[in-house]
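Today's session is about reading a structure prediction critically. Students often jump straight to the picture, but the first step is always the sequence itself: look for stretches that repeat, for charged clusters, for runs of hydrophobic residues. Only then move on to the predicted structure, which in these notes is written as discrete structure tokens rather than atom positions. Here is the chain we will use throughout the hour.
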Amino acid sequence: MRKSLAFLLFLAFFTAISAQNTPYDFKEHKRLNATSVKNQAQTGTCWAFSTLSFLESEALRSGKRDVDLSEMFVVRHIYRMKCENYVRRQGNAQFSEGGLAHDALKAVERYGIVPESIYPGRKDPSAPFNHGKIERTLRNLCQDFVKQGKDGKLDADWLTKIELALDEEFGKVPTKFDYVNVVFTPTSYRDYLGIKTEDYVTVTSFTHHPFWAPFILEVPDNWSNGEMYNMPVSDMMRCAKNSIELGYTVEWDADVSNEGFSAQNGIAIVPAIQMKDKDGIAVSNTFKIWEPETKITQELRQQLFDRQVTTDDHLMHIVGLLDETHSGLYYVVKNSWGEISENKGYVYCSEAFMRQNTLSFTVHKDAIPDDIAKRLGFKEGDATIENSGTRARPGRSPEMELRPSPTLKPNPAQKTVTPSTKAPAKKSSDN
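Below is the predicted structure for this chain, in token form.
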């Protein structure tokens, strides 16, 4: 018995040592339909690019084809709403290029949507986006209006001046347009695509508010005070994984400025050994050679948020699942920084990275696990928490396993993907 135990310990140790000298080995488990990778360029509009990519996949899921939505149609409307919010609150409000998924959904609900070809949102459609000038113009206008209001000199038509500035930058908004030989309005095109914004909810996980109730997350880009449903981190992660398994993509709000995210290498991890503690060889092998990751608990996640180490600085679109040989579940994430890295603009994010750096997921209500949906009041029935009973491989929690549900099958065409070997990315902030 003692010999058997010693042998098992030796085998586990040998396996761990061997794994630390081998490259990442990805096998595709589930990949959902998504449109081409775009580039937000010199703008802080990831919230629009990621959410419209999410809605494009929703349209594809419902059977529509050749969907390419105009991000700038949504951005223009949200800029106007930000300006109005800022001036009416007499300057006591957030004003920046950033935002969250519910902002884009609110604009689509209120104003509809149009194809990219109908509204490119810039004078030269071939030029890269750059909102530095319009952001300064709008900010200066709004600050002048606030001052005029405090001095009792603000004209009642100040919003007209905002509209003129937006028209100059983005172009006039179409009230109707001809597309594929059909005349649409922005709202009728939204309805044609089958987009119902009330079908989507945002879930999060923080202990400074009660679980199983909505709250307003206190981050700067939540300027519109959108609510999110709070739950334990394991349940939040189940919402994302279950969505992909059922064929629904996920919109993701995250922190990518923390150590471990590399768009240039197309991978995101939480290394157990920090960069500052690695030697030169280990640093150069980061994102190439597999390494153990930090275990992310609810408590650690909250501490990082409370210390403002974890902040919301980028939104992306989750479109699939991978099985990494050494550590299990990874998420396939579509970014909006162009087709960089060997992954062509996609980033493979580990379960640990997701647990630590996720601010929120936006998901379709129908993709939420039944027990969670009942507890949130989306479905009728007793709100009991399920226990799947799934047995994990050693060192892997059940939720990290990539075993399909009884009614679903994994992608039979599993292919091995090797991550890029380019230099690690510098820390960056999108919003």
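Discussion point for the tutorial: DSSP finds twelve helices and 14 strands in the chain.
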